[in-house]
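Regression test case RT-17, inverse folding.

Input:
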């Protein structure tokens, strides 16, 4: 089961609506769905909520350390409550996906994301779950820092919010650890088109069915 939901971002009103705070947006939504609220806890260097989900403790966390030191907050809470890395899910902005695309992933490298980089270092492993929320790429590497610290367009924000809504709809499945089903719900940007009804031969329609 997932026991810790982490959203990455930067604290402060000037960063609240920037692309880098997509992880915060997800945890804000999770708090609403789970009917809880986050409060500052200096022991864990972040905004924290704790609830019971299906008889198990579940924590929500938004590190207030700024992005580059996110691991300080995550590791402090995980170590105190003896959480395994694979019981942690980190939601973060993803440059490699366009707005409207999101994926659930386990393990792997930090791919240059400074928040993930510090979590890797502080936990001593990359074997935790990630919810990758697409925010697009500026097209030029030198513009990345400016890009993630900038507010997305209205259409981009709508697309990101739709991804978050899909992830929130999958939250009960995700929290119990049914990751294959959660992936199906999260990775699908729109419901699959229904198959047309099978056309039966008109002659066969007039023949009564045999009793089984």
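Golden output:
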């Amino acid at each position: 089961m997932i026991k810790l939901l982490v959203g990455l971002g930067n604290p402060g009103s000037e960063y609240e609506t920037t692309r880098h705070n997509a992880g915060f947006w997800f945890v804000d939504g999770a708090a609403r769905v789970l009917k809880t609220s986050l409060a500052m806890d200096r022991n864990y260097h972040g905004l924290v909520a704790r609830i019971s989900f299906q008889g198990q403790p579940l924590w929500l966390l938004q590190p207030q350390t700024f992005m580059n030191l996110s691991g300080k907050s995550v590791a402090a809470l995980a170590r105190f409550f003896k959480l395994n890395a694979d019981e942690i899910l980190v939601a973060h902005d993803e440059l490699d996906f366009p707005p409207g695309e999101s994926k659930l992933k386990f393990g792997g490298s930090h791919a240059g994301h400074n928040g993930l980089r510090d979590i890797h270092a502080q936990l001593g492993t990359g074997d935790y779950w990630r919810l990758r929320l697409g925010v697009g790429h500026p097209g030029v590497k030198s513009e990345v820092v400016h890009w993630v610290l900038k507010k997305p367009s209205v259409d981009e924000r709508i697309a990101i919010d739709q991804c978050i809504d899909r992830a929130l709809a999958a939250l009960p499945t995700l929290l119990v650890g049914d990751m294959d089903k959660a992936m199906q719900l999260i990775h699908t940007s729109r419901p699959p088109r229904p198959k047309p009804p099978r056309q039966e031969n008109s002659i066969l329609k007039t023949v009564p069915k045999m009793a089984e």
